[in-house]
Task: structure prediction
Amino acid sequence: MAQLNTQLVHGDPSARTDATGAVNPPIYNSSTYSFTSVDAMPRWDYARSGNPTRDFLEAQIAQLEHGTRGFAFASGLAAIHAVLSIFKPGDRIVVGSNIYGGTYSLFNEHFQRWGLLSTPVDTQDGDALARAIHGDTRDVPSARAVYVETLTNPLLQVNDIAQIARIAHASGAIVIVDNTFVTPLLQQPLDLGADIVIHSATKYLAGHSDVIAGLAVVRDEDLAARVYYAQNRLGGVLPPAECDAVRRGIQTLALRLERQQENALAVARWLDANPYVRDVHYPGLHGEAVAGKGLRGSGGVLSFEVDPVLDPADILDNLHVFRLAVSLGAVESLAELPARMTHFELPREERLKVGITDGLVRLSIGIEDVRDLIDDLESAFGLAVHHAHTLSFALAGE
Ligand SMILES: *Cc1c(COP(=O)(O)O)cnc(C)c1O
Result:
């Protein structure tokens, strides 16, 4: 079988169905497919159930994640919705405590109403995880699944998928991993024991901030049948043109990620040496965080805490190369202030508990020249420091 970079460019050759010789698999713009006769069921009959453009992308992600079958959805959250729909009311899922906000609300609002129970746990703590899965024999049923993200958000702690899978499987629970932050290039969770992998393909896989998409890959045929049912019956499928946009994004994933990681490490080091920065959260900064946990790299997202003498908004508002925006994983660098831009609905105490301090900044590093990124940060910090001094002189003069 081809190596990873070749797979990124060419996908799975057996999923090619077009006979024209077109180098790119065509976008099949058809909602329905004709039968040759009443009883001759065609391979494709109706595009929600499947179509060649989507099949190509689904085969590609299944190949990259070393799974049995892949599924493409209209968004990352549609993928998560479909995967969680394979469970039934009364089932319980243990959920990592620092997960994507939309997923958190899907568990705690939508699925709670639906009767799916969830228990948050610090997945860095193996004993706590084992206890949470086990439940208690009287009231709390043993968990059916563990749901985690490869890197916690926004503190970027590394979850040890192999260890989590060992603990979960010992109690008969399956493991679902949201691999969005690292992609199959840095880790293939199914190889480490996970059962289902999910991506917001909106981020690194598509990679250009121009498409919303989700993917799921399963380990075995039984899970494939259940996820396929949810995909086809809930119907949150990815349209052919978007399938093609994700396919094209995946072709350059390795090149982009390599540059993003190089740039992220340089930015993390620059921040680490900055006297106005307290903690820098980037797994690769001190090397040891990724080693031994199955990761081949640290990705392109990092976060850091600004010294409370500065207003972090003074830094973010003065960035010009970094765009002030949520989301991550694209060619352009983005900056955001979680406490005021994405997590302001959480009560402050709740935010602080999950590590989202008032001065925590998250950066998604792109593929620009790293000198421009660092210059941009340097001048923004300079203006913020100047502003803080002006303020303290004004206060002293009062
Ligand atoms: C963005 C994101 C999602 C949600 O994906 P959408 O494509 O926005 O629906 C889920 N998980 C993680 C880790 C994400 O970053």
